[in-house]
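Example 4.3 (complexes with small molecules)
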Amino acid sequence: MAILTVENLYKNYGPIEALKGVSFSVPKGSVFGILGPNGSGKTTLLGIILDVLRATSGSYKLFDQAPTHVQRQQIGTLLETPNFYHYLNAVQNLTIAAAIKQRGKADIDKVLQLVNLEQRRFSKFSTYSLGMKQRLAIASSLLGDPDVLVFDEPTNGLDPVGIVEIRELIKKLSKEGKTIIMASHLLDEVEKVCTHVAVLQKGTLLTHGHVDEILVTEDIVETGATDLQQLHTILEQYPGVKGVHMKGQHVDVAFSAGTAHLEALNRFCFDKGITLNHLRLRKKSLETKFFELTQNNN
Ligand code: ATP
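Answer. The structure with adenosine-5'-triphosphate bound is encoded below.
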């Protein structure tokens, strides 16, 4: 099941085209990174999904259905710098958050434990480090036990220790079965925590897919045959492959950079009874490309 499917989304702010025909889908259980430099349209995209903004055209589905208020309630969000009462403690702040959301009051102890703030739950918010404040905001997004979490730049402004804490927390939530959609301008961050990524540049989707296919420097070999399922099964047995993924009409096979040999791969498939009708080596240069884009935009 797709948690979110975005179909040809456009958003204009007057003459500014913030999104230009963006389409992708977020698989259940993934940690899905929306990666792009400042101004690429990440926040706009999240705003549309969460019904804070209206798309100029295009549509999206939540849980494979037209979005409704009830479906949106199943999403926990962290959209901007957390706004809590400075003179109240964590429990008091979360009690207010639960009252506003009209759910999750019974979860307060559990979410504070999840984000590792139970020791400090009776300390005033004003005494928290930035990292603790951000973790409290994540705790708030977890009230009501949503299956899906949307985080906009969750590590923004944190020091290295705070960043690691948030990363570990995201991984923990993912292990618990949550689907996490997060916007980030940091390639490193997406690479470290995300399973999937969509790369945005000035409102255009450059590419999307598994992180291990898109961000890591690897050789990807595109292969095709009449029976793609059988091809997939056989390629998984090929010595030295790092990953095999169905991609539309092709099966992509990932190798460490410089280790893909097309002739040997072709022979292997043929010996297993499969005749390839497509075979192409694609070098992984997106990482370099992404840095260039980021630099151009700064
Ligand atoms: P950042 O990380 O800096 O928030 P972003 O990738 O989230 O960037 P957006 O905030 O979605 O990007 O902005 C996309 C484009 O739309 C930018 O050119 C921005 O200036 C423009 N934009 C965003 N909000 C508005 C608005 N309310 N009015 C006019 N232009 C806007």
